[in-house]
Design goal:
The chain is α/β, with parallel strands linked by helices. It has ten helices and eleven strands. Strands 1, 2, 3, 4, 5, 6, 7, 8, 9, 10 and 11 form an eleven-stranded mixed beta sheet that branches. Strand 4, helix 7 (about 180-195) and strand 5 (about 195-205) form a beta-alpha-beta unit. Helix 4 (about 80-95) crosses helix 5. It is globular and about 70 Å long.
């Protein structure tokens, strides 16, 4: 998942007549061709019809930027702020009575901000993430702090852990970035992995956040301050809403001198009832409802909420 604030800026864009090599020639693109290119940038696809998570998390440049955001404890970007994570782990420990005999797994663990803290409590901890850069950082940190944590570099959609777990977490609204089929796959996997008294904790965006989401199209030179490439580029961001499905899309088109690519950031928005229906489909149930994964009280007017799931 990729969540950032977009800043609109006006740019003067000179485009070339050669669609393949942007570095050659001095002529402007024909108006019809330019219009067609912009139409493509602003084309609205079917919900979850394109999935590009690997482009964001495994690209050499963007994965470095994402890790930096993870490790900045003063902002809520790739991870929560340090203070929130501390409070969250404290609540997880107290609420689920984690002990040396507990087995905990974090799907989408990133650089180990949760797993390292939980491991210090004495639990047996596993972390799964497909970002090689994040996993390398997490392993180095565990070694440096003498923590025994089982880190697995893998796509958690495909990964099949062994054994059962007392606590399964998927945090920072990762669940919202998955398609309906992917969500069903993950919940069914969670159900199989639960110990007899095991629990699942995840957080999601609410319909309040969906209502606040704005559609639009912006262009910015070196958009997000060079996040997408070390070389100069233009970043187009087309934002769409799907009212029937309660889904949004930020479609990034990144145009460099000799390369163009697209990154799709999908988000599903939920009510407690819609999340309960997805749980029931794989023989799980929502057991508790909270405002966040730090155990704060649920607020129907807030942009996020969290649930604890279990077997019926």
């Amino acid at each position: 998942m990729f969540t950032m604030v977009q800043n609109q800026s006006k740019q003067s864009i000179r485009t070339r007549s050669d669609h393949t090599d942007y570095s050659s020639g001095d002529e402007f693109m024909e108006p019809a061709s330019f219009f067609s290119a912009l139409e493509s940038v602003n084309e609205k696809p079917r919900p979850f019809s394109v999935y590009t998570a690997s482009e964001l998390w495994t690209d050499e440049h963007t994965s470095e930027q994402m890790l930096a955001f993870h490790l900045d404890g003063e902002i809520d970007m790739s991870s929560r702020r340090t203070g929130f994570i501390d409070n969250s782990v404290r609540w997880l420990n107290e609420h689920f009575e984690l002990s040396k005999g507990s087995r905990v797994i974090d799907f989408g663990c990133g650089p180990g901000l949760y797993t390292s803290r939980i491991a210090r409590l004495g639990a047996e901890v596993f972390g799964v993430d497909f970002s090689s850069r994040s996993i390398a950082y997490a392993r180095a940190r565990a070694k440096r702090e003498n923590l025994e944590i089982n880190y697995i570099e893998a796509d958690y959609l495909d990964f099949q852990p062994k054994g059962t777990f007392d606590l399964i977490i998927m945090i920072m609204c990762d669940y919202c970035a998955l398609s309906p089929k992917q969500r069903s796959t993950m919940l069914a996997k969670f159900e199989r992995l639960l110990s007899d008294q095991g629990r699942i904790v995840l957080d999601v965006y609410s319909l309040k956040a969906f209502d606040e989401k704005q559609e639009g199209l912006i262009c910015e030179k070196n958009q997000l301050n060079g996040f997408w490439s070390a070389d100069p580029y233009y970043g187009f961001v087309a934002s769409f809403k799907y009212d029937d499905e309660k889904v949004s899309l930020d479609k990034y088109t990144i145009v460099e001198k000799n390369r163009q690519r697209e990154i799709y950031n999908w988000l599903q928005y939920f009510t407690p009832e819609s999340l309960e229906r997805e749980a029931h489909a794989v023989e799980l149930q929502v057991d508790e409802l909270y405002g966040d994964v730090a155990g704060n009280r649920y607020d129907a007017a807030a942009a996020e909420f969290a649930v604890v799931m279990k077997r019926p």
